[in-house]
Specification:
Layout: E1 4-6, E2 13-15, H1 19-26, H2 36-57, H3 59-64, H4 86-91, E3 104-110, E4 120-125, H5 126-139, E5 149-152, H6 162-172, E6 176-179, H7 186-196, E7 200-203, H8 205-214, E8 224-227, H9 234-244, E9 247-252, E10 262-264, E11 270-273, E12 278-283, E13 297-303, E14 314-320, E15 335-337, E16 346-349, E17 352-355, H10 356-363, E18 369-379, E19 382-391, H11 399-406, E20 415-422
Parallel strand pairs: 5-6, 5-7, 7-8, 8-9, 19-20
Antiparallel strand pairs: 1-2, 3-4, 9-10, 10-11, 11-15, 12-13, 13-14, 16-17, 18-19
Helix pairs in contact: 5-6, 7-8, 8-9
Length: 444
C-alpha cells in the first residue's frame, strides 16, 4: 500500500519514495518505518565487511589500503581512507576483482571518449546484478502503475545489460516492459508508442527529446518519462513536459555504481539513493575534504553489498550537493541534487568559465534542435566556438542560436560559428559532445 505524506494543505498528498520502505526491509526492519540510526549501523557494518573483503581479496586494495585503518569505528572514519580514481580502475581492472573468474556473470567495458587511453572494465556477479534489478523495479514504482506498459529505449540485447536488468525489475513489480533498445528509427518508435499505448518511456535525454520534437497531435502521449545515462538539461525537461504534458523523472546511475544509484520521488527536486547498497559522500574536488549538506562538491561513493568488484571512495567527478532538510515526500533518506555536469567539464575563456551545461540550456531551448557538438579552438584571447547543430526541420538562419550563446558571459568575446544539419531521421546522440574532452584542443 502506498505511504502518503501530507503537505501543509490537507487535500494535497505526495507519495513517500518507495525506496524508503524497501531499504527498511533490506536492513531488517520488516514492517517498520526506516530508522536512521539503524540504517547508519547497517552502513557501518557493511563498510567494514567491504574493507575486509577488499583488503583480503583485491590486489589493488591490498596495496592501496596498506597503512590505513582496516576497521572503522564510525561512518566519519571513512574519510581517513584514500580515494579511488578512474585512472586507478583503468590501469588494472582485474586487480579490483575479489572473486574467481567463474563467479563473474557480466563484464562491461567502458571506452574512453578520446582516441587513446585504457578502457574501464567492470565485473559483476549474478548477485551483484540482482541487487540492481531489485532497485530498478522499486524505483519505477514512483512513476508507473501495475499493468503499465513501459517502452525501454536502452540497450536490451545482452543479458545483464541495463535494459535487460530494467526489464527484469519491472516484471517483479507487475509492470509490462517493452524492450525496444536505442532509437534508430524515430518514426518507428513513435508508432510503437501510439500503437501499444505506452504509458512510460525510459531512455537518454537526447533520444527522448528527438521523439518529442517529432510527436504530432493525435498521437498517444506517455504519462511519464524516466531520463537516464546522461546529465539532463532543464531545457529538455521543459520541452518534454510542454509537448506531452507528462511528468519527467531523473535517474542517477553509472556502470561503476552497478548501473543504479538513485532516482527522483514525486517531488522531483533530486535523487533519493539506494543507501543500503551504496554509501555516498561529497568532497571538495581540490582538497578531498568532506563537505556538509548544502555545499557543492564532487560525488564519491563506496559499494556496501557488492562482491565481485567492490569500490571504495570512488571519485565520480560529478558536481552536486546534498540538499539540506527533509524532502517534502517525507523520506528520511538523503536527497542528492540533480547532477549539473562534471567538475572538469569546463573551459576557462578569458576570466570566465564555460560549462557544457551552459551550452545545453541555451541550445536545447530552441524548437527543433535535436543535438549538437561543440568545439572550442584557438588561442587565449582569440577563441572560436564551432557548433555543429542537428535539426528536425530545415534551418537557414543561425541568428537565434548565436544570440542565445552570446548572452553567456563567457562567450561575449568569442567568435561563434554555427553549422546546420537537417536530419529528420537522426536518432541521437552525437558522441564527444562533452566539453572537457575538447580542452585538449586548446594550446597549453
Amino acid at each position: 500500500m502506498a505511504v502518503l505524506y501530507s503537505e501543509t494543505r490537507q487535500d494535497s498528498y505526495m507519495q513517500l519514495t518507495p525506496l524508503e520502505p524497501w531499504i527498511a526491509h533490506k536492513i531488517g526492519l520488516t514492517g517498520q518505518q526506516l530508522d536512521i540510526k539503524a540504517l547508519q549501523a547497517w552502513q557501518l557494518k557493511k563498510l567494514n565487511e567491504t574493507l575486509h573483503l577488499a583488503s583480503q581479496k583485491s590486489i589493488f586494495y591490498r596495496r592501496h589500503l596498506q597503512g590505513f585503518p582496516n576497521e572503522l569505528g564510525c561512518l566519519s572514519d571513512l574519510q581517513q581512507l584514500p580515494l579511488t580514481s578512474a585512472a586507478d580502475l583503468r590501469a588494472n581492472p582485474l586487480a579490483f576483482v575479489c572473486v574467481s573468474q567463474d563467479e563473474i556473470a557480466r563484464v562491461v567495458t567502458l571506452q574512453t571518449s578520446g582516441t587513446s587511453g585504457l578502457p574501464k572494465r567492470l565485473f559483476f556477479t549474478t548477485d551483484d546484478q540482482e541487487l540492481t534489478t531489485d532497485f530498478f523495479g522499486v524505483g519505477m514504482e514512483t512513476l508507473t502503475k501495475p499493468g503499465d506498459q513501459i517502452l525501454i529505449l536502452l540497450p536490451v540485447e545482452k543479458p545483464g545489460s541495463v535494459g535487460d536488468l530494467l526489464r527484469q525489475g519491472l516484471q517483479c513489480v507487475q509492470r509490462t516492459p517493452i524492450p525496444y533498445g536505442p532509437v534508430r528509427d524515430p518514426q518507428d518508435a513513435l508508432m510503437q508508442i501510439d500503437r501499444l499505448r505506452i504509458e512510460c518511456l525510459v531512455g537518454s535525454p537526447s533520444q527522448v527529446l528527438g521523439l518529442a520534437q517529432r510527436w504530432e497531435a493525435g498521437m498517444h502521449r506517455p504519462r511519464s518519462v524516466l531520463l537516464s545515462t546522461d546529465y539532463v538539461p532543464q531545457a529538455i525537461l521543459n520541452t518534454l513536459e510542454n509537448s506531452w504534458g507528462c511528468q519527467v523523472f531523473n535517474h542517477y546511475g553509472t556502470t561503476e555504481m552497478g548501473l543504479g544509484g538513485g532516482v527522483d520521488c514525486e517531488v522531483r527536486r533530486g535523487y533519493h539513493l539506494r543507501e543500503a547498497d551504496l554509501y555516498f559522500e561529497m568532497i571538495d574536488p581540490s582538497s578531498g575534504k568532506l563537505l556538509p549538506p548544502g555545499e557543492y562538491g564532487e560525488v564519491v561513493f563506496t559499494t556496501l553489498t557488492r562482491q565481485g568488484m567492490p569500490l571504495i571512495r570512488y571519485r565520480m567527478g560529478d558536481r552536486s550537493r546534498f540538499i539540506p532538510g527533509q524532502c517534502p515526500c517525507g523520506t528520511q533518506l538523503k536527497t542528492l541534487e540533480h547532477v549539473s555536469g562534471r567538475w572538469e567539464g569546463f573551459l576557462t575563456v578569458g576570466e570566465q568559465i564555460l560549462r557544457l551545461s551552459d551550452l545545453d540550456e541555451a541550445l536545447f531551448a530552441l524548437p527543433g534542435l535535436l543535438d549538437f557538438k561543440a568545439t572550442l579552438q584557438g588561442s587565449p584571447g582569440q577563441e572560436e566556438l564551432l557548433i555543429e547543430a542537428i535539426w528536425e526541420h530545415e534551418v537557414e538562419d543561425s541568428n537565434a542560436a548565436r544570440s542565445l550563446l552570446l548572452e553567456l558571459p563567457s562567450l561575449q568575446s568569442v567568435d561563434v560559428r554555427i553549422s546546420h544539419r537537417y536530419e529528420p531521421d537522426y536518432p541521437g546522440s552525437l558522441q564527444k559532445r562533452i566539453i572537457h574532452d575538447l580542452r585538449h584542443q586548446l594550446p597549453l
